[in-house]
Write a structure and sequence with these properties.
Elements (H helix, E strand, L loop, with lengths): L1 H19 L8 H40 L11 H31 L10 H30 L6 H11 L3 H31 L9 H21 L5 H25 L3 H35 L22 H25 L15 H25 L1
Helix pairs in contact: 1-2, 2-3, 2-10, 2-11, 3-4, 3-11, 6-9, 6-10, 6-11, 7-8, 10-11
């Protein structure tokens, strides 16, 4: 079951990445192999991130199904051990992707082999492994020094053994902490940006936008760029490439406007207001739930999260309203995750990080996969803490 679920996520992740990955020119066999390996590792990481996001809704819906049909023969495979096993696998693979696979993919992509060695895949793998070992030693040294500064008796081999025994299980918690800080920064921005994003995707009513005027303006822009392109000498290659790129963008906008202009009356006058009202309700409900839960945590000490101790899967409903409440929780979880991703790419620091269709380098794809992994690892913690 775990393999089938992951296979589906891997296939979906592969199609998503190939949609945004820049179509490379003809490359040497060596560079093509390196790009392919980095692509597979990035796809694996994105699939793990998707699995981490889906695990919390899957756990909620599984709990409600087990409560509704406790003795059903066809759902005997759905039990607490399966859910806990999936969470353990998500934790393991998240650590593996963040600390091993993604650094390997980045260094492997940037490597050229040591000077004096014969160029090839083996030389690049050797350089990548050396870089990973040096990075691991650097991080271990920083932790060693930090532990020695905190504890006067820690600068001994025993502290290193303690570090190896107790530090590694908490790596995922460290990732979740970084992700929580990032989510706290991105989610409010994303909630406010969701209205703008949906407004760009949907066709607005005629009273809110004049498509004829926009078509007239975009046509003038297209004609102006075309005249510049015809007047530029063929020897000025840089200007020609820039103008052709601008012309493609203008043509894309024009095509989008033509599609919006052909939209039916019900799509223009009904879908847009309905979606905006739905977004407003979801945003208000999310903010209200978070505010109430924070107030409850401040007033009642017993409401604080107590770790993994709980009623267990299939023993008690996680929502006061049963199946309907669980469905609302799942919708809000997905809404918060989408909002956090939108907010992440809306931040000025990460604007240039936004993937573009057929024009995203492999290095940017690796960075995006790491960012999504960190955000997804923090989602369960944030959902549990903020209610």
């Amino acid at each position: 079951i775990c393999f089938l679920l992951f296979a589906v996520l891997y296939i979906v992740s592969y199609f998503i990445i190939t949609r945004y990955k820049r179509k490379a020119d003809e490359q040497e066999d060596e560079d093509a192999i390196v790009n392919r390996i980095s692509l597979f590792l990035s796809t694996f990481t994105l699939a793990v991130s998707a699995g981490a996001v889906l695990l919390l809704p899957f756990s909620i819906i599984s709990n409600e199904i087990l409560l509704s049909f406790p003795q059903n023969y066809y759902i005997q495979w759905l039990n607490g051990s399966l859910i806990h096993g999936l969470w353990n696998l998500a934790s393991l693979f998240s650590n593996l992707c963040l600390f091993v696979l993604m650094p390997f993919a980045f260094f492997f992509l940037e490597s050229e082999g040591f000077a004096g060695l014969k160029k090839g895949i083996r030389a690049r793998i050797l350089e990548t492994l050396v870089m990973l070992i040096l990075l691991a030693l650097l991080i271990l040294g920083i932790v060693w020094v930090a532990s020695a500064l905190i504890d006067n008796d820690a600068a001994s081999m025993e502290s290193l053994y303690d570090l190896w025994e107790f530090y590694l299980p908490y790596l995922y918690s460290c990732i979740s902490l970084m992700g929580c800080l990032l989510l706290l920064l991105c989610t409010p921005v994303g909630l406010s940006r969701m209205f703008t994003v949906m407004g760009q995707l949907l066709v607005k009513p005629t009273i809110l936008e004049d498509l004829d005027e926009q078509m007239y303006i975009i046509t003038l822009e297209e004609e102006a760029i075309q005249r510049k392109l015809n007047g530029v000498s063929s020897t000025v290659e840089y200007q020609t490439v820039e103008l052709e790129r601008e012309l493609e963008k203008v043509k894309s906008k024009k095509t989008n406007l033509e599609r919006r202009k052909k939209a039916s009356a019900w799509e223009r006058n009904l879908v847009y207001p309905a979606v905006m009202i739905l977004l407003l309700i979801e945003t208000s409900f999310s903010v209200l739930l978070v505010a109430l839960n924070i107030l409850y945590l401040l007033v009642d000490e017993t409401a604080m999260p107590k770790g993994s101790g709980g009623p267990g899967i299939g023993n008690a409903s996680l929502s006061t309203f049963g199946f309907v409440g669980a469905a609302l929780e799942i919708i809000l979880i997905f809404y918060l995750m989408v909002s956090s991703v939108v907010g992440f790419y809306s931040l000025r620091f990460f604007e240039n990080f936004t993937p573009r269709k057929d024009d995203t380098t492999m290095t940017k794809i690796i960075g995006n996969c790491v960012s999504i992994l960190v955000l997804s690892s923090a989602l369960p913690v944030m959902s549990r803490t903020l209610g």
